[in-house]
Specification:
- GO terms for molecular function: anti-sigma factor antagonist activity.
- InterPro entries: STAS_dom, STAS_dom_sf.
- It holds the Pfam family STAS.
- With about 150 residues, the protein is of the alpha/beta class.
- It has a single domain (about 20-140), classed as STAS domain (Transcription Regulator spoIIAA), CATH 3.30.750.24.
- Helices cover about 35% and strands about 25% of the residues.
- It has a 6-stranded mixed β-sheet with strand order 1-2-3-4-5-6, with helices on both faces.
């Protein structure tokens, strides 16, 4: 069942919000925000660094979304300054699981660090990637399985 939530759902990791918080996540400036303005397509906006210390927080937000009735999830990585191995593994696993559940998962890859990391991991062709959120949304709303333009 698709759960109706506010238009945006911020995930605040600041110490005051989470009973002591997660200083490593907060210090690195990881910010996650969900946008449900066009259900059943959601957008997860990510900014900051995705390394071994911050990727678990992304996983905490991402995996529950893949258990819903979303048709598509766009992960906006435009504001990501570093995409580490753990994050790449998470994105590949999430894509595989989403496909198994019939959910289209795609990324935006307009930032240079994201493009370089995806290319280094040979994932640029395995994960549907788009230049911006509007292109990704358009692709997932007009096609069953979007194919990223290359």
């Amino acid at each position: 069942m698709l759960v109706r939530t506010p238009v945006t759902e911020p995930f605040d990791d600041s110490p005051g919000r989470r009973g002591g918080g997660r200083p490593a996540v907060h210090e690195r400036g990881l910010r996650l925000r969900m946008d449900f303005t066009e259900p059943p397509v959601a957008v997860l906006f990510v900014s900051g660094e995705l390394d071994a210390a911050t990727t678990p927080r992304l996983a905490e937000v991402l995996w529950p979304r893949l258990l819903t009735e979303l048709r598509a999830l766009v992960i906006d990585l435009d504001e990501v300054g570093f995409l580490g191995v753990d994050a790449l593994r998470l994105l590949a696993s999430a894509h595989s699981y989403a496909s198994h559940r019939g959910i289209t998962l795609c990324l935006t890859d307009s930032s240079r660090p994201v493009r370089r990391a995806l290319a280094a991991a040979a994932l640029q062709d395995a994960l549907p990637c788009f230049g911006d959120v509007d292109a990704a949304r358009a692709a997932v709303t007009t096609a069953e399985r979007p194919v990223a333009p290359r």
